């Protein structure tokens, strides 16, 4: 008598209970494209605001570093690890921001190799400018009803879940 082939012991999902994988995959890929476009559009909005106000010495990326830095005092490495800066050339942009007088830097007392950075008054003024821009946008979006369906809190929750999944994937590699 022939014995049956070994059975896969992993739990089997009820195929009918799963959403169509092709639709889910397509929606995920569309989300990735939207995230990228939204980020670029946000930088364009900052650029346009700066042009309108005659603020020509900063790039939108540098303005976002100032905005995200806020009142914190952090090391250059922490800028990336805390999600305050998403680019690969953080040292170049920090050097430019220090040179232009928007960021103050000093060596850490604990680790002389590490540099701590924080906003100067000029940097805080730029941060406030970007903050006012975002507040105006939030007001306009709220008045238009765009943020109601689904509620933005649910969209943010979903985004944080995707962020956690991606972080787990990165940690898994190492």
Automatic annotation (TrEMBL):
Domain HTH marR-type as annotated: residue spans: 28-164
Pfam families: HTH_27
The organism's place on the tree of life at top rank: Bacteria
Keywords: DNA-binding, Transcription, Transcription regulation
InterPro entries per UniProt: HTH_MarR-typ, MarR/SlyA-like, Tscrpt_reg_MarR-type_CS, WH-like_DNA-bd_sf, WH_DNA-bd_sf
PANTHER family with a match to the protein in the record: TRANSCRIPTIONAL REGULATOR, MARR FAMILY, TRANSCRIPTIONAL REGULATORY PROTEIN
Name by which UniProt lists this protein: MarR family transcriptional regulator
């Amino acid at each position: 008598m022939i014995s049956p082939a070994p059975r896969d012991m992993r739990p089997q999902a009820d195929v009918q209970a799963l959403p169509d994988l092709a639709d889910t995959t397509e929606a995920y890929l569309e989300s990735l494209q939207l995230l990228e476009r939204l980020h670029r559009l946000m930088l364009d909005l900052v650029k346009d605001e700066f042009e309108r106000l005659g603020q020509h010495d900063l790039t939108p990326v540098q303005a976002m570093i100032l905005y995200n830095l806020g009142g914190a005092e952090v090391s250059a490495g922490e800028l990336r690890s805390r999600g305050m800066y998403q680019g690969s050339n953080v040292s170049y942009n920090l050097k430019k921001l220090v040179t232009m007088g928007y960021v103050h830097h000093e060596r850490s007392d604990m680790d002389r190799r590490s540099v701590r950075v924080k906003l100067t008054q000029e940097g805080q003024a730029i941060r406030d400018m970007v903050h006012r821009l975002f507040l105006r946008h939030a007001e306009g979006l709220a008045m238009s009803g765009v943020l109601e369906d689904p509620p933005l809190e649910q969209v943010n929750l979903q985004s944080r879940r995707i962020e956690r999944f991606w972080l787990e994937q990165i940690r898994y590699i190492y």
